[in-house]
Specification:
The protein has about 150 residues and is an alpha+beta fold. It has helices spanning about 75-80, 90-105; strands spanning about 25-30, 40-50, 55-65, 70, 110-115, 125-130.
Length: about 150
């Protein structure tokens, strides 16, 4: 976890990390500590590589979380997600791995991720992970991504 006193990427020129392992996520103090609210990030053009064929895989990721003491800085999250472009892994590993890394480092009250993957071998694979049941009183809207329907 990066030191929250000085974000590594915010206001700086930062290149795309070579791998998810090399990517450093920045966390900054939650400006509304004590307030129960939901933050949503959507990455509708997420890409990674098939670990077997090396061909690109595409997904619409939706990350929802209820902040604790910190929030993830969005530029560092974009760079982290972009680092998967040259990373080979199965959909399950990518989706759950992103969710678990954010949860373990940021320590939010609650986090969930939906990975809505476009078809591989003719079958769309959707992967979902959450840390636990959402806190009582947290408004958790539907992620709003319809199941894959093909053209039309």
């Amino acid at each position: 976890m990066t030191d929250t006193s000085f974000p590594l990427h915010l206001g700086q020129q930062s290149g795309l990390p070579a791998s998810p392992e090399e990517a450093q996520l920045d966390y900054v103090p939650n400006p509304r500590v004590g307030s129960l609210y939901l933050v949503r990030f959507a990455a509708p053009e997420f890409t990674s590589l098939c670990p077997v064929t090396g061909q690109p895989d595409f997904a619409h990721l939706v990350i929802d979380y209820a902040p604790g003491e910190t929030i993830v800085e969005s530029k560092s999250l974009k760079l982290f997600l972009g680092s998967f472009r040259n990373h080979g892994a199965f959909h399950e590993d990518v989706t759950v791995g992103i969710g678990q890394r954010l949860f373990n480092e940021m320590k939010p009250l609650w986090l969930r991720i939906g990975g809505y993957w476009y078809p591989r071998g003719g079958i769309p694979i959707d992967v979902f992970w959450q840390s636990d049941a959402p806190p009582a009183g947290l408004w958790v809207p539907d992620q709003g991504v319809p199941g894959y329907r093909g053209r039309g």
